[in-house]
Amino acid sequence: VTSTTTENWDVIVIGAGTAGIPTALAAMARGAKVLLVEASDRIGGTLYMAKGSFSAAGTKLQRYRSIKDAPEDHLADCLRLTGGTGDQPILKLWLAHAGKTLDWLLDEGLQVFSTEPQKSGPHDPYTTARITTAFPGGAGYVPVLSRLLRDNPATNLLLQTSFIDFIWDNANQITGVLVKRQNGTTDAIHGSNVVLACGGYSANAEIWRKLHDRAHRVHTNSYSKGDGIQAALSAGAVLENAETYLPSFGGLKDLENPGQYCFQSRVFPQYRLPWEIYVNLAGHRFLPEDEFSPEKREHALKGQEGETFWCIYDDKIRRVAPALFAWPEDLIEAAFNKHEDYKVAPTIEALAAACGIDAQTLAATVADFNRGQASDSDSLGRAHMPRPIVEPPFYAVRHYGVSVLGYAGVKVDDRLRVLNKDRHPIPNLYAVGEMLGMGVFGKAYLGGSMISAAMTLGRVLGSEILQWPR
Ligand SMILES: Cc1cc2nc3c(=O)[nH]c(=O)nc-3n(C[C@H](O)[C@H](O)[C@H](O)COP(=O)(O)OP(=O)(O)OC[C@H]3O[C@@H](n4cnc5c(N)ncnc54)[C@H](O)[C@@H]3O)c2cc1C
Questions:
Q1: How far apart are CA 14 and CA 231, in angstroms?
Q2: 361, exposed or middle or buried, with CB in 10 Å at 0-12, 13-18, 19+?
Q3: pLDDT (tens digit, 9 = 90+) per residue, 141-154?
Q4: How far is CA 360 from CA 305, 391, 394, in A?
Q5: Distance 199 CA to ligand 1 centre (A)
Q6: In the beta sheet, which residues pair with residue 177?
């Protein structure tokens, strides 16, 4: 330790992102001396990458649109979507306060798309329109949060400072944190409460493989390295819900950023009905490609070898269908000449060989689809089939299941206290945001849940739960 500060903070918040900033603002509003510790050189965390959807019931925006909704209806709907799974005390705490949190953001100047709220985004729909998406996306939250921090004279923010461990006293209580500064020095900082709001683990390949036993394919914030989760585990916390892992459908290797994954393909019927077929590594179709439920599509993909599929089409489809990729055509053309995931061939058999698929199997799959297309009775029940796959050359593009967040998280109680394996709170330690994992909400992807819960529970923590000596 290079230095020890003498100041004793009421609250030390690790991570100035989605959950951390509302936590800090709410605690400051109650007069707490708060220190925000942030590893990167800017605030906002994953919000810059996020689509920005926020689910909440009983909001002003819903009332303007005469949409009747209440937290109890939101809860019932979440339980419908998850089949009654999830941590109900946490769900209830979040949903009871989510509407007020969105109203607060709107009052503070959050801009949203004029069509909001909606029933669905990229996930299975709610029964009521309760998803509001920030304009122009997740980054739209950042100016509001920045201004609130900047305008508050009590704000103390350390950028480019990484939390590395806890400080314990002789009575086995956490009394602060060790942080590493950009210049390499390690400081000891003391405080009455430590809030882990430093995001998930999805950018950490080692933790990913250990928890999920599969390839590390993600499109996430590079700072989501699981620092908070690892420290919490070493302090006795338990990790739960890794098994709720569900790959997001239709990721690609990023042509513009080698080594990264992205979602530049439009293999989503919500945005573009399919003209192509999708086959697994054995050459079989595994779902009707126009299946509308994201949940069903993701479960179907989870059951395929390598969570991988080839999207197959012909030259006519390439020319007449709405663009399959968000990238410009010249980038795709270049990829067909050199990228391992883009194949073109004069026959289906040659395409199969290029993809490493058994030629007869793929030929039979395509022939079966073409028969179904001609007679309007697809063997998998697909309805949207504008064209057969018959005109050479034939194309195949490899797609992957890719994740945008962490599923497992630390177990907390309904006061967001981090629990140990005996279900006792670890003194002075709290967690919020993706530290809790997506799986805390149950076995389904609840649209707009992560941002909403991160901000809402952060506010509840700061305004109602945390205590400090007066
Ligand atoms: C592409 C994409 C799209 C998404 N779209 C949506 C959506 O539309 N709706 C939705 O609800 N959810 C969405 N999500 C998920 C959601 O954005 C995140 O789960 C949520 O923002 C996480 O909030 P957080 O506060 O836990 O983490 P973050 O917002 O990432 O904040 C954590 C902060 O902690 C910092 N940090 C990390 N380690 C340390 C350390 N050791 N010391 C100090 N600081 C540290 C990070 O730099 C970061 O600033 C999306 C995610 C992605 C990647």
A1: 12
A2: middle
A3: 999 999 999 999 99
A4: 19, 18, 15
A5: 5
A6: 166, 189
Residues contacting residue 319 through CB under 8 Å, at least 6 positions apart = none
For residue 396, pLDDT over 90 is answered with yes
Q: Minimal CA–CA distance to 400: which of 262, 200, 221, 275?
A: 262
Q: Is the dihedral of CA 214, 216, 220, 222 positive or negative?
A: positive
The pTM of the full predicted model, rounded to 2 decimals, is 0.96
Ligand 1 residue neighbourhood (C-beta within 6 Å): 14-20, 37-40, 45-47, 49-53, 138, 162-163, 197-199, 219-221, 223-225, 227, 404-405, 433-434, 448-452, 454
**Where residue 275 falls among pLDDT bands split at 50, 70, 90?**
very high
Amino acid occupying residue 372: G
Tokens, residue 154: 């009590």
Q: What's the CA-to-centroid distance between 138 and ligand 1, angstroms?
A: 10
Token readout for 359 is 């030629």
How far does the centroid of ligand 1 lie from the alpha carbon of residue 435, in Å?
9
What's the one-letter identity of residue 168? W
Token pair recorded at residue 197 = 């709001």
In this structure, how many other beta carbons lie within 10 angstroms of the beta carbon of residue 344?
A: 19
Nearest CA to ligand 1 atom 22: 434
